[in-house]
């Protein structure tokens, strides 16, 4: 998809919404790979849109690349313990500013449609030792259902993203925002908004669209999308920032015509004669989900529908061992480092576990992999189980095997397995046998 410096090879707008989303996220994904290449440009754009020097110093330098058009966490009034979701989180800039505000009891979740952006944001989070469930980055297409529970979120933020969604997505995204917000929850969105109808030629310019320019819509249309989704108290504030900040310093040029270096900015100067500020403005948009419209609602205990979405997808498929094979190992041990059985259940392990098994809960296992590896890198068979070994067990085994595979020669002394049937099958067969079941 990308030709020079991460820009799409063609400047023709795709005809389908899926094509537009792919062109956009592929281009941002290519740009994610160049994060950190031009810190001066990134800093200048961030400063132009309201970030303070202290804020920028407090976050990883690679978390922003000059792609923002505002600073939503500065006005979102985030409080200790709140859950905040950032739509189109990029390298994580606003999530890293939100995380200290919501504190360790709160949650900051970034959603982005580019796997490369998600990978970048997760690497940035690791630099700050920020982990799920406190800080999570999850791959999600914003035109589709969010991977978030209903009535779960206190505040939705977004920074220069909604204008990138196709027209239908610009409407449906607010239905999803409304669904996931708690009653009384709020929206603080920074976005570019058209001051007057944009020329048709510009609207058909893919580079201008990807540069957050030609997908911008009029305030009245934007407002209608919010109100149609059920929001009340919608407020648009023109921040009056100078949009020329994106291409100041002589860096811009059309695709394959301007700066093609690794530090070329993604936002390209559009082909229009007059000042860009006459056409578009950077706005901050506030809205509140009314209370009591749905009567009493239950606030879900977790925000993410699937906790494992906050971690990399498992690549390997470790083999299974039957419970008879594992019984044989327990009763006839070959040596001290022959095998270990790992129980990955967390609170649901009442009723017994495989005798001698170690507990490493699946929900935190990904972050604990270095510790598990250090302890068991010379253990030949590391056998994982959960309740039935259908979900957490194979997932944990897969993460461990992926980790081993990433260690090269050092990881070759150990191998992941799954206990077939999990503890359920084990207890059904050996429930009364003390040498095989620990009742703690
Ligand atoms: C202009 S950048 C802004 C990034 C970030 N908010 C910031 O201020 O640095 C837009 C981001 O939105 C993401 N994005 C664009 N379209 C999307 C879609 N349809 N679904 C999910 N993410 C999308 C891109 O991958 C990119 O990371």
UniProtKB/TrEMBL annotation:
Residues 335-435 form the Rhodanese domain. Pfam families: Methyltransf_31, Rhodanese. The lineage of its organism: Eukaryota, Fungi, Dikarya, Basidiomycota, Agaricomycotina. Its EC number is 2.1.1.137. GO terms for biological process: methylation. It comes from the Eukaryota. It catalyses: arsenic triglutathione + [thioredoxin]-dithiol + S-adenosyl-L-methionine + 2 H2O = methylarsonous acid + [thioredoxin]-disulfide + 3 glutathione + S-adenosyl-L-homocysteine + H(+); arsenic triglutathione + 2 [thioredoxin]-dithiol + 2 S-adenosyl-L-methionine + H2O = dimethylarsinous acid + 2 [thioredoxin]-disulfide + 3 glutathione + 2 S-adenosyl-L-homocysteine + 2 H(+); arsenic triglutathione + 3 [thioredoxin]-dithiol + 3 S-adenosyl-L-methionine = trimethylarsine + 3 [thioredoxin]-disulfide + 3 glutathione + 3 S-adenosyl-L-homocysteine + 3 H(+). Belongs to the methyltransferase superfamily. Arsenite methyltransferase family. This is Arsenite methyltransferase. It is an enzyme of class 2 (transferase). PANTHER family: ARSENITE METHYLTRANSFERASE (PTHR43675). Keywords: Methyltransferase, S-adenosyl-L-methionine, Transferase. SMART domains: RHOD. One of its GO terms (molecular function) is arsenite methyltransferase activity. Transmembrane segments: none annotated.
């Amino acid at each position: 998809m990308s030709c020079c410096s991460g820009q799409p090879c063609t400047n023709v707008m795709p005809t389908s919404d899926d094509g537009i989303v792919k062109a956009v996220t592929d281009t941002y994904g290519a740009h994610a790979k160049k994060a950190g290449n031009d810190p001066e440009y990134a800093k200048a754009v961030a400063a132009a849109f309201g970030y303070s020097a202290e804020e920028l110093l407090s976050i990883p330098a690679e978390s922003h690349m000059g792609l923002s058009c505002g600073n939503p966490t500065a006005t979102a009034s985030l409080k200790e313990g709140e859950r905040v979701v950032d739509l189109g989180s990029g390298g994580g800039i606003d999530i890293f500013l939100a995380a200290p505000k919501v504190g360790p009891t709160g949650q900051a979740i970034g959603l982005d449609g580019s796997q490369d952006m998600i990978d970048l944001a997760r690497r940035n989070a690791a630099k700050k030792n920020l982990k799920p469930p406190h800080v999570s980055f999850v791959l999600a297409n914003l035109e589709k259902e969010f991977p978030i529970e209903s009535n779960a979120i206190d505040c939705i933020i977004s920074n220069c993203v909604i204008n990138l969604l196709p027209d239908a997505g610009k409407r449906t995204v607010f239905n999803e925002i409304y669904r996931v917000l708690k009653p009384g929850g709020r929206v603080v969105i920074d976005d570019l908004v058209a001051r007057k109808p944009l020329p048709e030629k510009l609207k058909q310019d893919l580079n201008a669209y990807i540069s957050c320019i030609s997908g911008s819509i009029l305030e009245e249309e934007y407002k209608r999308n919010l109100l149609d989704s059920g929001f009340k108290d919608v407020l648009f504030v023109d921040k009056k920032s100078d949009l020329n900040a994106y291409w100041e310093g002589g860096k811009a040029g059309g695709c394959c015509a301007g700066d093609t270096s690794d530090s070329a900015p993604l936002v390209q100067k559009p082909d229009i004669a007059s000042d860009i500020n006459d056409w578009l403005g950077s706005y901050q948009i506030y809205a509140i989900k009314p209370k009591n419209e749905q009567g009493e609602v239950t606030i879900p205990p977790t925000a993410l529908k699937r906790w494992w979405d906050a971690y990399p997808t498992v690549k390997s498929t470790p083999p299974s061992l039957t419970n008879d094979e594992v019984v044989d190992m327990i009763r006839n041990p070959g040596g001290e480092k022959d095998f270990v059985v790992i129980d990955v259940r967390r609170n649901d392990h009442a009723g017994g576990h495989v005798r001698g098994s170690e507990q490493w809960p699946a929900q935190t296992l990904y972050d604990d992999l270095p510790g598990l590896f250090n302890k068991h890198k010379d253990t030949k068979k590391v056998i994982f189980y959960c309740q039935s070994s259908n979900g957490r067990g194979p997932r944990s085994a897969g993460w461990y095997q992926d980790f081993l595979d990433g260690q090269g020669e050092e990881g070759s002394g150990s191998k992941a397995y799954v206990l077939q049937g999990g503890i359920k099958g084990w207890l059904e067969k050996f429930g009364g046998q003390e040498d095989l079941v620990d009742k703690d």
